[in-house]
Amino acid sequence: MIHLEGATLIQLDNNIENDVIGPSTKDYEKVFYNPAMSGSRTRSIILMKHIIESGYLGGSEIYAIDGLAASGLRARRWLNELPEKLVNRLRVTVCDMNENSIKRAMENHQRFPPNNTGGVLNWRQGDLRSAVLDQGWHWVDVDPFGSPMPFLDTAIQSLAKKAILEISATDTAALAGSSKTALMRRYGARINPDNLAHDSGLRVLMACIARTAAKHDRFAEPILSVWDSHHLRLSLKVRKSIEMANQLEKMLGWRIAGPNEKEVSASMQEGLTPKSSTESLPMHCFLPLSYPVNREDKRVSGPLWIGPLGDSAAMASFTEEEVISMCTTEYDPKNPMNWSDRDFELERRKIIRSIKNIKNEAEIIEGEFLILTDDLASWRNVGSPPSPIKMIELINKKGFKAGLSHYPKPSFRTNAPWDVIIESLDQTQPPI
Ligand SMILES: C[S@@+](CC[C@H](N)C(=O)[O-])C[C@H]1O[C@@H](n2cnc3c(N)ncnc32)[C@H](O)[C@@H]1O
pTM to 2 decimals? Predict the structure, then answer.
């Protein structure tokens, strides 16, 4: 069976049951390919283009490892879909402990070679935890079944002085706060399983990565964070800097649901909540790590990352034009999948969907409030949830930033003080 993902072809051998399409099995003999992760692979192409062009990785060869490569499609998409000038600098390795995965990745590479032949694809069969330490890497991708924690320490040690680390996690029950024991055991944290749990989960994972980086004299900062149906993914810049690593504690803290006045005032004093009257209190606020919290208190999530979860310049590069030009192809009646014009159109739409709202959120990623409009309506006891777009319009008119967020529920992010948010909400409600 031949399949097209983005602009790259892949042969899957599911007829003879050697390959698995989908997340149903973790059998290490089989070659894993999950079409539901296509968005994550697409985003990693856009991100790689932005990062290389920004000059962050210098001007010569870039050593990248698709650490838990499975079918190797991520690495092959980098080599096939990025512009030639960038591909020429790529020295990519696919690593997997499954011999069949490596075999299949390299067979596919030969059968459907990349458009640009200037890049290099190497392979390494074995356990990533030792393989990754063979050399220094500019780009490390860790995309495991379940939690990435077992791979974190060695992945970080293997990074060049300036590098990118992309980490996925599929243990969403733990990171959304519903499997409390797994969450505490793996991530040393608690999460209130409310509607912001996905954001809290990303922040808890980020805190763990940043702490591990600091142990190795490095500072990690998120450039993109996405919770996409059954997985979370964090993309980070990691730099060697003792000075910055010493500042880590300032980026860690707690999220309090339904905070009291004392907590909100403390959060404002620390610059974690925009200054506002405390007549009406916000739904959530962050507090620094030094704030004494009762960890048994169900309102408390953390320890977690309290800084921005992305980088505006990187997020602004997620444009529709960019993703269409690199990651889609025109309908070809002789295509090997026997796809119709409509199948191509569906793939194109899927690709565009995978970057939805990332650019919108770019300008406001540093905003302190992530507001879920359904929650806001019930919190304030008003009839109908406001449209996020209307709220953004009203807040912008009052001189504050606001933008739609790439979050799986209707929501927006803003730096407006809470009383401005409430005033805007009231304006959306019909007169009594
Ligand atoms: C979720 S899949 C990776 C999916 C892939 N990144 C993609 O985009 O399709 C996880 C892969 O990790 C491999 N794996 C599991 N433990 C490993 C280890 N310790 N070292 C290397 N590979 C490992 C499995 O064989 C499997 O192919």
Answer: 0.96
